[in-house]
Write a structure and sequence with these properties.
The complex is a heterodimer of chains A (400) and B (533). Chain A is of the alpha+beta class. Among the domains of chain A are: 12-59 and 143-226, Gyrase A, domain 2 (2-Layer Sandwich); 294-400, Aminomethyltransferase beta-barrel domains (Elongation Factor Tu (Ef-tu), domain 3). Helices cover 20% and strands 32% of the residues of chain A. Chain A has helices spanning 12-18, 41-49, 69-76, 124-130, 155-162, 207-218, 228-237, 282-291, 304-312, and strands spanning 24-27, 30-33, 51-55, 60-65, 89-95, 101-111, 114-119, 137-140, 145-151, 175-180, 183-188, 197-203, 223-225, 295-302, 329-333, 336-347, 352-360, 369-376, 379-388. In chain A, the strands form 4 sheets. Chain A has a 6-stranded mixed beta sheet. Chain A is globular. The termini of chain A are far apart. Chain B is an alpha/beta fold and 533 residues long. Chain B has helices at 16-27, 68-73, 105-115, 117-141, 153-167, 171-182, 185-192, 196-204, 219-231, 245-258, 301-307, 316-324, 369-380, 395-398, 427-442, 448-451, 460-467, 519-531; strands at residues 6-12, 32-35, 47-51, 54-57, 83-84, 89-92, 98-101, 240-241, 262-264, 269-275, 278-284, 289-297, 331-338, 362-365, 389-393, 408-415, 452-458, 503-505. In chain B, strand 10 and strand 11 (278-284) form a beta hairpin. Classes of the chains: A alpha+beta (400), B alpha/beta (533). The interface between A and B is medium-sized, with 30 and 34 residues.
C-alpha cells in the first residue's frame, strides 16, 4: 500500500506520545519533534541546566570499512585521519576541489579499519567517487542505527546511574562501548549544544529500552525530551552552524558566491594543511590560507539599548521571536551592506539577541560596530550590533 | 588610619542591592568595600542547606524583575546566573477540582473555558489592559523619580517624561490606571470575572507583602505592580534562579569579585561617621573604623536613617517620614524538605511524580477572594491566619540540584503571619504557623505529612532577626501608593540621595521597590557616580 508519510525514527512510539504540540519537523525525511511542549523554555533550560534527551536518529550515517578506509577519509575530509586513535571522534568538514564546503559531520574510529561518518545530507555518491580503486566498503546505516543526543550538565550523573561502566573517564570527543538496560550501546562525548553532552548510538531494534531507562532514571535529574527548536537556540549560542541554514553546500550552490570555504566558516582548526599527501581541495585551501579569506562567519551581539530605542519610537517594548530565526538579515556599516546574519536568536541565558553572521573583510574583526536589520512593526530598521568571538557561550564543564 | 581602611565608597549591606551597587561603582573604577553583618552575603536572597542535601531558598524565592541590563552589564551569566522558567500556576479548589494557568495561551484558555466561558473571554482583554497599564508605568521604573515640588531642570524633564507616557495612553487606559491606583483588587477583579478560584488567585498577587486584604483599597495597584513581571515575560527575567535566590546573590557576588570589590562578612556597622555635615566613613561594631568619600546603605530605611545615623544629622520632617514608613511584615515562609512529592487529589501524579507538570510551577492556595479576606481578618486582630494564603513552589522540580535525587524541597510563602502577633512570636507560635500551613495543604494533598523530612518556619520576626529587615517586610516597606515613586522612602528624597551629604540609599525601601530586581542598587550607584567624587 502506498504510504507517503515521513519515516518514523525508532523512538517514535515514545516521542509521539510525548510531543504535546505535534509540531513535527521534517529532518532528512523523518519526523523530528519540533518541541515536546508548547513553549520552548523548559526544553532550552533542560539543555543548559539539567539533561536534554534529543532523538537525532535522522542523522545520516555511513560505515566505512576496509584496508583503505582511513585513506579514503584522509582524502575526503580536511582532518589528518592518520593521526586519529581508535575510540576517537573528529569533527570535520569536507570540500570540493575548489576548497568549498560540501557538508560537515563527525568521523568516529571504531578500530584500525572501521569508521563511521555522519552527515547532514546524503554523501554516498561523493564518497564512492573518491573511493575508486580503494579497498573499502561504504554502507549507509541511517535506518539501522538509532541515536540519542543527551545534552546538559546533569547528563554524566544520569549516565553513571544507567550504564554498566561509568562514563567519568570518557573524554571530550572520545567514544566507548557500554550497556544500558541490557542493550549494547556506544557512547561518544559529542553534541550540538556546546554543553556537557553525549551521543548514544544503538541498534535500532534496541532503541526503546534505552530511551525508557534514561527517562526513568533521569526524572530525578531534570531530564526532559527536547526537540530540534530548543536545540537550534543552544547551537547558535555555541557558535555551531547548520548546513542549508548558515551555509550552502558547494554541491547545491547555483552561483559561486553561495559557496563557503572552511576558513570562512571559522573551521581553520579542522583544516590540516600540514597533513601528508593529497586531499580534496588542498590547493585552493592553501591559497586561501596564504591570501586570507574574503568572508568570515562571526558572532553578532545586538545592542539592547539600541533595539529599545527603535521599538520605543513606535511605543513598543522590543519584540523578540520565541525561537531561532533562520532568515537572512542584512548587516550594514554606514549605508553599505557588508554581510548578512543567517541565524539569529534570543539567548535566554545571556539575555542577549545574538546572531551568526557572514561579514566581508575587514568588518569581521572582533569588536567591529555594525548594524543588523530588524523589523519594527512592519518597518525595516537597523539595530546597532557588535562583532564578538564565537562561541557566545561555553561553560567550563563542556570539556572537563 | 591605614590606607587599607580607606575607600572611595563604603556600602552597608551585602544583599543583592548592595552587591549590585558595589559592582557598578567598581566598574567605574572606584575602590569599594561592601560590609555584610552576616557570615554570608545575599541578605534576603540567600540559599542555605538547613538540612544536609536540601537547599532552601530561605526568604525570597522567585526572581521577579531582575533588570536585564544588570544581567548584561555585570555579565551575570558568566558568573553563574541562570533564571529558570516557572511555567504554570495551579490552584486546587475546595470541591476537588482545580484551576490551572499554563504558559501557553491556548492551553490556559481551554482550561478556563472548562470553568467559565465568560471568564475565558474576559481573560484575554483583562490581560491586555493590565499589560498596557503596566507598560505605561514601567518606563517610570527606570527614571529617577522627579520631585513635583522642585523646579530643577532634571525634575522638570523627569515630570515631562512621565507626562508623555501618560499622554500616550488612550482615554480608556488612563481611566483604567486611575482606577487601579485607587481600587481594591477585589473590586477590580469582580468587574471582570465570575469564577471564584480565578478571582482568588489573581487577588492574591494584590496582597503580597502588604498588610492589607483583597478588599482594601490600594491593592489593585499592587496587582498591577506584579503585572510588570509579565510584560517582561518575553525576556524571561522572571522565574526561579538556579540554586534559588542565593544563586542570584552568588552570581552578583562573583561579579563583584571579578571587578575587585572588597566584600567583608561578619562586619556589622554600628554607625556612619559624620564630619562637617558629610558622611565620611563607618564605625563597625568591633570598633574598626573605615573611611570613604561616600557611604551607601542597602539596609532597610529605618536602620539606614534611624540606627546608623544620629538623628541630629537629619531634618525632623525627614525623620518623621521614616518613622512613619510602614514596614510591618505580614508574611512568613515555611521551607520543607521532602522525601517525595505531595500528591494533590485534584490532579494526582503517577510514579514518583518526576513528570508531574503541576509541581514544576507554582501551587496557589487561593480558592476565592473570601478565603483570602478571611485570612486577613485573623491578621487584622494580630492572629496567624487559620487558613492562610499559600504560594508554593517545588524548587527541586525546576532545578534538580536543589535536593538529593528523588527527594524534593518545597517553598511555601504564607500570608498572613503578622509581625506584631498578639502575645509575641515564640517557638510555640512558630510551630502554630507551620501547622496552619501543613493542615491547609493537607486538605488538598492528604499525603503531605508523610513526605516531610524536615521543616523550617520563618516568621516576620525571623526575617528581621536573620536578614536584618526591620519589621520583616519582604519589600523593606509595603508597596502602597503612598510609599512608592517620589514618596519612597520619603518625600523629596526619592533620588537615592539623603539629607546627609555623601550618604546614599539604594535598597528595596528606595525607588522602585522590592523584589529581587536590583534596580535600587543600580540606580543609586549611577546617581552616586553622577555626583562625582
Amino acid at each position: 500500500m502506498l504510504n507517503l508519510n515521513l519515516k518514523t525514527t525508532p523512538f517514535h512510539e515514545r516521542t509521539s506520545a510525548l510531543c504535546q504540540p505535534q509540531n513535527w519537523r521534517k529532518w532528512a525525511g523523518y519526523f523530528a519533534a519540533g518541541s515536546y511542549e508548547h513553549t520552548l523554555d523548559r526544553e532550552y533550560w533542560a539543555i543548559r541546566n539539567a539533561a536534554a534527551l534529543i532523538d537525532v536518529s535522522p542523522l545520516i550515517k555511513y560505515v566505512i570499512k576496509g584496508r583503505d578506509a582511513a585513506a579514503l577519509l584522509h582524502r575526503v575530509t580536511t582532518r589528518n585521519i592518520h593521526k586519529m586513535s581508535v575510540g576517537q571522534v573528529f569533527y570535520t568538514g569536507w570540500c570540493d576541489e575548489e576548497g568549498k564546503m560540501i557538508d560537515d559531520g563527525t568521523v568516529t574510529r571504531f578500530d584500525e579499519t572501521t569508521f563511521r561518518l555522519t552527515a547532514a545530507e546524503p554523501n554516498l555518491r561523493w564518497l564512492m567517487m573518491n573511493a575508486v580503486g580503494m579497498d573499502v566498503e561504504i554502507s549507509e546505516v541511517t535506518d539501522d542505527v538509532a541515536a540519542l543526543s543527551f545534552q546538559g550538565p546533569n547528563t554524566r550523573k544520569v549516565l553513571n546511574k544507567v550504564t554498566e561502566k561509568p562514563v567519568d573517564e570518557l573524554k571530550y570527543f572520545r567514544l566507548m562501548t557500554n550497556k544500558i538496560n541490557g542493550v549494547e550501546v556506544t557512547i561518544s562525548r559529542t553534541g550540538y549544544t556546546g554543553d556537557l553532552g553525549y551521543e548514544i548510538w544503538m541498534d535500532a531494534k534496541d532503541a526503546l529500552p534505552v530511551w525508557d531507562k534514561l527517562m526513568e532514571v533521569g526524572g530525578d535529574y531534570g531530564i526532559s525530551p527536547v526537540g530540534i527548536l530548543a536545540m537550534d537556540m543552544a547551537r547558535v549560542e555555541a557558535g555551531l552552524f547548520m548546513l542549508d541554514v548558515d551555509y550552502t553546500s558547494a554541491s547545491h550552490a547555483w552561483i559561486e558566491s553561495q559557496k563557503s570555504s572552511p576558513f570562512e566558516l571559522g573551521l581553520d582548526w579542522t583544516v590540516a594543511l600540514d597533513k601528508p599527501g593529497y586531499f580534496v581541495g588542498r590547493r585552493a585551501l592553501e591559497k586561501e590560507k596564504r591570501e586570507g579569506s574574503a568572508w568570515k562567519m562571526v558572532g553578532l551581539a545586538v545592542d539592547w539599548v539600541g533595539m529599545e530605542k527603535l521599538f520605543g519610537k513606535v511605543g513598543l517594548p522590543p519584540q523578540i521571536p520565541g525561537s531561532a530565526v533562520r532568515a537572512s538579515l542584512p548587516v550594514m556599516v554606514g549605508n553599505v551592506q557588508v554581510g548578512y546574519a543567517s541565524t539569529s536568536t534570543w539567548s535566554p541565558l545571556l539575555k542577549t539577541y545574538i546572531a551568526l553572521a557572514h561579514l566581508q573583510k575587514p568588518y569581521y574583526e572582533i569588536g567591529t560596530d555594525v548594524r543588523m536589520e530588524i523589523t519594527v512593526e512592519h518597518h525595516r530598521q537597523y539595530a546597532p550590533a557588535k562583532v564578538v568571538k564565537l562561541p557566545f557561550y561555553e561553560p567550563e564543564w563542556k570539556k572537563r | 588610619m591605614t590606607s587599607s581602611n580607606t575607600y572611595d565608597a563604603i556600602i552597608i549591606g551585602g544583599g543583592h542591592n548592595g552587591l549590585v551597587a558595589g559592582a557598578y561603582l567598581a566598574r567605574a573604577g572606584k575602590k569599594v568595600v561592601v560590609l555584610e553583618r552576616r557570615p554570608i552575603v545575599g541578605g534576603a536572597a540567600v540559599t542555605e542547606e538547613i538540612f544536609p542535601g536540601y537547599k532552601f531558598t530561605e526568604f525570597s524565592y522567585v526572581v521577579s524583575l531582575l533588570r536585564p541590563e544588570i544581567i548584561r552589564d555585570l555579565e551575570l551569566p558568566k558568573h553563574g546566573l541562570k533564571i529558570l522558567p516557572l511555567p504554570s500556576t495551579f490552584t486546587p479548589m475546595e470541591n476537588g477540582d482545580y484551576l490551572a494557568a499554563w504558559d501557553d495561551h491556548d492551553l490556559t484558555r481551554r482550561e478556563l473555558y472548562r470553568h467559565s466561558p465568560k471568564d475565558a473571554e474576559a481573560y484575554d482583554e483583562y490581560a491586555r489592559v493590565m499589560a498596557r497599564a503596566a507598560k505605561a508605568i514601567k518606563p517610570i521604573i527606570n527614571l529617577i523619580p522627579p520631585d513635583p515640588s522642585s523646579m530643577s531642570i532634571r525634575d522638570l524633564m523627569g515630570l515631562l517624561k512621565v507626562g508623555q507616557y501618560a499622554a500616550s495612553l488612550s482615554e480608556k487606559e488612563l481611566y483604567m490606571v486611575a482606577k487601579l491606583a485607587t481600587q481594591s483588587s477585589a473590586d477590580l477583579l469582580e468587574e471582570w470575572f465570575e469564577f471564584d478560584a480565578l478571582k482568588g488567585t489573581k487577588a492574591a498577587s494584590g496582597i503580597i507583602g502588604t498588610y492589607l486584604g483583597p478588599r482594601s483599597p490600594g491593592t489593585a495597584y499592587v496587582l498591577l505592580h506584579h503585572y510588570m513581571g509579565e510584560i517582561d515575560g518575553a525576556f524571561r527575567a522572571w522565574g526561579f534562579a538556579k540554586n534559588g535566590s542565593g544563586g542570584v546573590s552568588g552570581a552578583i557576588y562573583n561579579a563583584t569579585q571579578a571587578l575587585g570589590v572588597e566584600v567583608r562578612v561578619n562586619a556589622s556597622v554600628q554607625q556612619v561617621k559624620v564630619k562637617g555635615g558629610r558622611a565620611v566613613g563607618v564605625i563597625l561594631e568591633n570598633g574598626d573604623e573605615l573611611d570613604s568619600k561616600v557611604v551607601m546603605s542597602a539596609a532597610d530605611p529605618k536602620r539606614t536613617f534611624l540606627q546608623f545615623v544620629e538623628q541630629k544629622h537629619l531634618p525632623d520632617d525627614f525623620v518623621t517620614s521614616i518613622q512613619n514608613f510602614r514596614t510591618r511584615g505580614s508574611s512568613g515562609k515555611v521551607n520543607i524538605a521532602l522525601s517525595k512529592l505531595p500528591n494533590f487529589t485534584a490532579l494526582p501524579y503517577t510514579g514518583n511524580g518526576a513528570n508531574s507538570v503541576l509541581h514544576r510551577g507554582a501551587v496557589s492556595i487561593s480558592p476565592s477572594i473570601d478565603y483570602i479576606e478571611r485570612a486577613y481578618d485573623d491578621a487584622k486582630y494580630g492572629q496567624i491566619s487559620k487558613r492562610p494564603y499559600i504560594d508554593m513552589i517545588f524548587p527541586s522540580m525546576i532545578d534538580p540540584d536543589m535536593a538529593p535525587p528523588g527527594h524534593h524541597v518545597m517553598s511555601c510563602f504564607v500570608q498572613y503571619a503578622p509581625y506584631d502577633l498578639e502575645g509575641g512570636w515564640n517557638d510555640q507560635r512558630r510551630d502554630e504557623l507551620g501547622e496552619a500551613v501543613i493542615a491547609t495543604i493537607e486538605q488538598y494533598a492528604p499525603n503531605i505529612r508523610e513526605c516531610i523530612v524536615g521543616m523550617q518556619v520563618i516568621s516576620p520576626k525571623d526575617i528581621e532577626r536573620i536578614a536584618g529587615i526591620t519589621g520583616g517586610n519582604i519589600f523593606h516597606g509595603e508597596l502602597l501608593l503612598h510609599q512608592i515613586f517620589f514618596l519612597r522612602p520619603a518625600p523629596q528624597w526619592a533620588d537615592f540621595r539623603t539629607p546627609l551629604k555623601g550618604y546614599y540609599f539604594g535598597a528595596s525601601g528606595a525607588h522602585p521597590g522590592g523584589g529581587v530586581m536590583g534596580a535600587p542598587g543600580m540606580l543609586a550607584a549611577k546617581e552616586i557616580l553622577k555626583d562625582g567624587f
